[in-house]
Specification:
CATH architecture of the largest domain: Beta Barrel
Strand order of the largest sheet: 11-10-15-8-9-12
Number of domains: 3
Mean pLDDT: 79
CATH superfamily of the largest domain: Translation factors
Largest sheet: 6 strands, antiparallel
Distance between the termini: 27 Å
């Protein structure tokens, strides 16, 4: 990794240490290490990775010295592949300009609708015919027909964390699953800056001044078996698990953020090809507002029953539990639930 250094007088532009794509001063999301090295959490807009930042002024003076920067992704070796810590993973096999046309195999609503829980969360299984391989922790993009909020047709790509392990829910290596919450914003019931539904025309909120329905989330939640789906990717290298089969892991999620952890947990405790190879412990914390919002509850119970010494899960249901540690509103959030088990967690990771 390179340390950020002074460039030539007046030259304060910085660049990606891998591709040297220039970035001006004022980079958002910088992370500094004790040695003074900087990493852009925002990522390079050219190579799209979280990378070390080098001073382009110094690079121009001595490219041989400053041109061999390190990128956490490890670099691209060949088309459709990225090397991460010495391991090749599938990468951007399909782009927004040339997506793969898959199809919807099934869609299930996995949350209960009540007067308090008036949104819909769907588990959708898509067929990719084995053409879009991925590994646990990655994401795919979905392109809705549109128009989107800017009037573009088709709509811009929307990335979703994959909720299935690499073999897919059916273990055929030809499917991918997503867990998607239908986005509905209503003026007076939360934030709603703009509307894409004409006043009086929304079937659920006919009296609302403004209603916004998420373009891609609605597209996915409206899918029926056999419908076409435009898929891009796969992408993402930040949520991959360590190779160490003895590693202990703590997973923290809220709502549909459970997706990558379901992907990992099915790999660790469910799939025939990998089941039994993991010797560590995994502890899942899931935060939701209502018990009706709990996702994959039966799956977690089955895993815990089969692997009682290796898998544990705990919920934080904010509207139904209280925590003295929450000085804001007294509700139980996922971090407060973790505080209750602080000593146990410390024993797991120390």
């Amino acid at each position: 990794m390179h340390q950020l250094t002074e460039g030539r007088p007046g030259d304060r532009s910085f660049g990606c240490s891998r591709c040297h794509w220039p970035r001006q001063r004022g980079i958002r999301g910088l992370q500094a290490s004790p040695g003074g090295k900087l990493t852009s959490l925002e990522g390079c807009r050219s190579c799209s990775r979280s990378v070390d930042i080098v001073d382009l002024g110094r690079f121009k003076q001595d490219p041989g010295r400053w041109g061999s920067g390190y990128c956490r992704s490890g670099g691209v070796k060949k088309k459709g592949v990225r090397v991460v810590e010495g391991k090749e993973i599938p990468w951007n096999l399909f782009s927004p300009k040339a997506p793969y046309q898959g199809s919807c195999l099934s869609k299930d609503t996995i949350t209960s609708k009540t007067p308090l829980v008036n949104w819909e969360t769907c588990h959708v299984i898509m067929d990719h015919g084995g053409k879009v391989p991925y590994i646990e922790g990655q994401s795919i993009g979905v392109i809705a027909p549109g128009p989107d909020k800017k009037g573009e047709t088709p709509a811009k790509i929307r990335l979703y964390s994959i909720a299935s392990s690499a073999p897919g829910d059916d273990e055929s290596s030809k499917t991918v699953s997503l867990v998607v919450k239908r986005v509905v914003e209503v003026a007076g019931r939360g934030w709603c800056e703009y509307s894409n539904v004409e006043k009086g025309k929304d079937p659920e909120f006919p009296d609302a001044e403004k209603v916004y329905r998420g373009v891609c989330s609605s597209h996915i939640c409206d899918l029926e078996a056999g419908d076409d789906v435009l898929i891009t990717g796969p992408t993402g290298a930040e949520m991959l698990l360590p190779e160490d089969p003895e590693a202990n892991m703590i997973f923290m999620a809220t709502g549909t953020g459970i997706a990558p952890f379901r992907s990992h947990l099915r790999n660790l405790f469910h799939d025939k090809v990998s089941k039994g190879k993991f010797n560590g412990c995994a502890w899942l914390f899931l935060g939701v507002p209502f018990s009706e919002s709990l996702l994959y509850d039966e799956e977690w119970k089955e895993m815990q029953a089969e692997f009682p010494g290796q898998f544990r899960f705990d919920y934080a249901v904010s509207s139904e539990e209280k925590s003295e540690k929450n000085k804001i509103n007294g509700e139980m959030w996922v971090q407060h639930k973790m505080m209750e088990y602080g000593e146990d967690l410390w024993e797991l990771v120390k």
